[in-house]
Amino acid sequence: MVRTLMALLAATVLLGTGVAWGSVRNFESGIFHFTTALLGGRESGDDGATDILLVGMDSRTDAHGNPLTEQELAQLHAGDETATNTDTIILVRIPHNGRSATAISIPRDSYVAAPGLGKTKINGVYGQVKLERMKELVETQGEDPAVAEPQAVESGRNSLIKTVTDLTGVTVDHYAEIGLLGFSLITDALGGVQVCLEAPVNEPLSGADFPAGWQELDGPQALSFVRQRQNLPRGDLDRVVRQQVVMASLAHQVISGKTLSSPATMHRLQDAIQRSVVISSGWDVMDFLKQLQRLAAGNVAFATIPVLAENGWSDDGAQSVVTVEPAAVQEWVKGLLDDQDAGQTAKVTYSRDQTVVDVINDTDINGLAGAVSERLTAVGFVGGAIGNNDKTKVTESRVLAATADDLGAEAVATELGGLPVTPDPAIPAGTVRVVLAEDYQGPGSGLDGTLPTAGTVQDAAAEAAPSGVPPSPVITAGPDDPRCVN
C-alpha cells in the first residue's frame, strides 16, 4: 500500500538531516529481512533500472508476527479476522540514470493467471499459496506449525512476485511488505496527510467518514481513506487513485524533507518502520538511498495499469473482478518505462484531464462535433466548447495548440486517428482545438470501427480499454498534487 513506499522513501531524508551512515545501517538492521531466490537483482541481467515490488498486507500482525492489540485493531477498523490478502500491489521502477521514478499500481481485484492456481484475483495469490503450503507441510509432512509458517509465507511471496512478473513483463529486483498498522504509524510520524474529496463519504466498513473538500488526516483516518472501496463510483479503481494521491502527498513531504527536521520525528519514523516493514535480503539500502537522493519530488509519477473492465466477472461467474489483458499491460508498461528511461518526465506524468478540448465542425454532418467531443471526454479529456466553424473553411482535419509539441494536442491527435497538429499561439495553454473537415473518419464519425493505435502512456491505457473505461489519471509527487478525488 502507500505505507510501503513511504517506509522506503522516508529513509532517504536521513542523509539530508545530518544522520551518519552508521545510523542508516542501524536503521536498516532493525528492519525485518527475508530471503527469496526469485528476485532479479543486478546479477540476473541489468535492465537499466531498480524494480521494487511494494506490497501492503491486510494483516493483523506486525512485521515480526506479533498480533496487534485489541485497541490497535479497533482504532484501525481492522476487525479480528486473520486475513492474508495483499491489499495493495505497486511496482516501482527507478532508472539508474536518476531522472525519474514511476510507481505502477495493480488493482487488487485484477483477474490474472497465477502459478499453480489458474485464473484468480491477484490479491488472493499470496494467501492461497501460503495456505496450501501450510497444509502440505503440517498435515502431509508432519512439520511443526511454527517451523512451517515462514516456509509457507515465503511460498506466498514467491508466487506473488512471479505473478506480477508474468503480468507486467518486469523482473522484480527487490520486495518490501507492510501491514495495516505500519501505514498508520508512518503517517502519524510524518505529521498526517492532506487530502481532498469531491463529495462527503460515510462508509462504516472501512471507517471512512469525511466531509467534502480539503482536510488533514491522522494515521488511522488516512488508513480508512485508502481502504474504502464500497460506495465509490469506480470501486477498486477509485480506491487505487485514493492510494496514489495519499502516496504522492506523503512522498512530496518525505523527499522535500520539510517535515523531517526534528529528532523526535525521526525517532517516531524509525520505530514505525522497524516495527512494520519487511524487506528482501541482499538489498543494498545505502545504494538505494543514493538513487532516491537524485530524484526531485516532481519526478515521481504514480500510474495504474490499463484495464478492460472495472466490473468484470471471473470465468466461473462467482466473483466480480477487474478484467485485464496481460499483453496490453506489458505493452503499456514497456512504453511507460521507455519514456521514463529516456528522461521524458513530462510525458510520463501527463494525464488527459490536464487538457480541455474544443471541437469545431467544418462539415455538413449535423452533430459531428458533439459526437467527437463525447468520445474524447469518455477517455479522460475535459470537454470544452462545441460549435461550427465560422472562419475560413478547411479541407483537412487538424488539431490546433499553442505549440506543435503540446502533449495534450499529441494525445488528442492520436486518439482521433493521427490528425496533424498545427501550432496556433492564440490557443491558451492547456487547451486544444479540434477542427473537423470533410476528410474526418475517426472516432465519433461512425466510420472508425475501433480505437486507433496508441502511443503515449494514457493512449496505451485507452487502447487497452475498448469497453470505454477511462484511464486513471497519472499523479505526481509535486506541490500541485494530490487532487480532489472520489
Provide a descriptive summary of the structure in words.
48% of the residues are buried. This protein has 486 residues and is an alpha/beta fold. It is 36% helix and 21% strand. The chain has helices at 2-10, 21-29, 70-75, 125-140, 145-168, 180-189, 219-227, 236-256, 263-276, 285-293, 326-341, 345-349, 368-378, 407-415, 457-463, and strands at 32-34, 49-57, 86-95, 101-106, 110-114, 118-121, 174-178, 193-197, 201-203, 208-210, 213-217, 277-280, 300-304, 309-313, 320-323, 356-361, 382-388, 398-401, 421-423, 431-436, 475-476. It folds into 2 domains: 2-349, Aminopeptidase; 352-455, Alpha-Beta Plaits (2-Layer Sandwich). Helix 1 packs parallel to helix 8. The protein has 15 helices and 21 strands. Strand 14 (309-313) and strand 15 form a beta hairpin.
